[in-house]
Amino acid sequence: MRTHEIMEINKELIAASSTPIVLAILAGEDSYGYAILQQVRELSGGGMQWTDGMLYPVLHRLERNGYIRGRWGVSDTGRRRKYYSITEQGLAELSEQRKQWQTVDAALRKIWVAASLPGGWTLSPTPT
Amino acid sequence: MRTHEIMEINKELIAASSTPIVLAILAGEDSYGYAILQQVRELSGGGMQWTDGMLYPVLHRLERNGYIRGRWGVSDTGRRRKYYSITEQGLAELSEQRKQWQTVDAALRKIWVAASLPGGWTLSPTPT
DNA sequence: TGACTTACATAGCACCGTCATGTATAGTAC
DNA sequence: GTACTATACATGACGGTGCTATGTAAGTCA
Q: Considering its fold, how many domains does chain B have in total?
């Protein structure tokens, strides 16, 4: 049985974070699919459990878009692997995605604080 | 012309954040569609510009799922509005979504730091 | 009268993760 | 030597979601 029990993170959140996470990992060092799955799990302390059926299409898309480049290689043990490295375009995209994430994260933090305040809350008055 | 020039945030990120943002806004105070669009814009300093074609289906889905409740009302000026309030289930979902977001955000922050370090980076060694 | 804003709604489209499945091979336990 | 597990990559059907365009209606203001 291929284990699929734990479902911690909803699919929209996975979709939103898969690109910046993969690009950031590859910005650190070249890697390959199977290793990325484990890196993500360790990185999140087990909170995130990506599936291979989700990751490989992501890698193919990133390569199709020119953000990463893949090349076939062989491990010490003789297994074939597809190693990916990030491109200049990929670094630019990572920067853009990071900016977008932080914009949304900043907004979320604001309302989380506001939502937990008693008696409602107000946004900035009106002035321009 | 219905303006659609600015496209700051990618759709996956919008999909991932729309539910927690709407629920958090309604956790602060009751509101309605058109006002939420403006609240989100102000909240993000203009960085996020939701479209009505995206928000209304979100509100309908949240209501269908029991996270919010809608009721028709009328503004001071006589316009009809559909006011929404959050339910107990909605508060629970908000809490869950917030937890998930923070899990992913924590992972992203780690790799962003690591990715900007020279010479790559390593995850916890191997010891099982 | 006409333009703009407020206010809600929906259909067609493309994209993306999920789930199941397929293929192949190295390592390990018996 | 024969299972079984882990490693490693790939894809197709399906459902859900935002995007874009469009429709409807009414209040505001010149």
A: 1
What is each CA distance from B77 to A4, B70, B96, in whole angstroms?
53, 20, 38
* Residues A22-76: tens digit of each pLDDT: 999 999 999 999 999 999 999 998 889 899 999 999 999 999 999 999 999 988 8
Cβ separation of A13 and B104 shorter than 8 Å? Answer: yes
Looking at per-residue pLDDT, the higher value among B57 and B124 belongs to: B57
CATH number at residue A107: 1.10.10.10
Which residue range(s) make up the domain with A24? 11-113
B7 touches strand D (CB under 7 A): yes
Proximity of residue B55 CB to strand D below 7 A? no
d(CA B69, CA B66): 7
The CA distance from B10 to A116, in Å, is 28
Nearest to B86 by CA among A96, A3, A95, A120: A120
Distance of C1' in C19 from CA in B97, Å: 23
Give the predicted TM-score (pTM) of the model: 0.86
Do residues A62 and A22 touch, judged by C-beta distance below 8 A?
A: yes
